[in-house]
Write a structure and sequence with these properties.
- This protein is an alpha+beta fold.
- 41% of the residues lie in helices and 23% in strands.
- It has 11 helices and 11 strands.
- It has helices spanning 3-16, 23-30, 34-46, 76-92, 99-111, 115-127, 142-154, 224-234, 249-253, 292-299, 309-327, and strands spanning 51-54, 60-63, 158-163, 169-182, 185-192, 197-202, 206-211, 239-247, 261-264, 278-286, 303-307.
- The strands form 3 sheets. A 5-stranded antiparallel β-sheet has the order 6-5-4-3-7.
- β5 and β6 form a beta hairpin.
- The chain is elongated.
- The protein starts with a helix and ends with a helix.
Amino acid sequence: MSRPTGRVLTLLELLQSGGTRTVAELAERLGVEGRTVRRYVNQLIDLDVPVESVRGRYGGYRLAPGYRLPPLMLGDDEALAVLLGLVLGRRAGLTTAERTANETAAAKIRRVLPKHLARRLDALTEALEFTERPGDLDTPDADVLLTVADAVRHRRPLTLRYTDREGRRSERTLHAYGIVAHSGRWYVTGQDAGIGEDRTLRLDRIADARTLPGSFEAPAGPGPAERVLTGFATAPYRHEVVLRVHGTPEQIRARLPVAVASIEEHRPAADLDLTAERWLRVGLRAERLDWLPAVLAALDRPFVVERPEELRGLVTALADRLASCARQE
């Protein structure tokens, strides 16, 4: 690579780092005169790289949004960070519906990595293991994801088509508060304007999302992530479970997090120690009950099953099995 060509690429890398760069700053970094910097800028413009001139005391050059992505100049650490993000995003299921886009982007960067860095990346991916097997999760359409994100940022209403878990389709107007990634899925939380209630929707079940005129005010109170987790804990399921557990909220949350259960906090007296153990009412909803007895045993706290009766029988059966095993020699 000739030195002028190398300097043009270095100029592109400097501009890609963000902000406005003065001619004097660029000339110093490149080791050339100011008029040579201007010539290099013209070469980038000839290559359709959107460089714009900024006038004034603090003027200079900066990259402007263009109709296509210009060539990226990534350092070793930057390339490694991007590749790891692609690998982990694909593994976690947090990709767009075009899963091949993730794979082709990783392949393009991998193809131009220096050999020493490629070897280190291969060593890392071979040594890396995950605690859970990847699932075949449905992922959202990229255009839907970006449209919803834009509506969240500018507080614009959304109209969308949604398919619920029962396969029922509906058209909704949503005031979206935020986007949340949880357990390998994308969710949007907001108010369904048609019914005036908060809803949490899976992004992969949304089709044809479009912004509407107007705006809305985001509500005070919990943030989007807390709203999503609370929604999971209170969503309708086959079984409604109510428990009384003697302990602290922290002890209960260790086994029954916010996404699983709600804890009814009684208003304490002024002199009550909030960290002290006390009886708390815990509510949760579940499609199946067979996993709960083991979780309650792992709590290692006194508890009472208020309902359902079926859960009491499962807890008793587990206790009998454990007692039987303990008596065996």
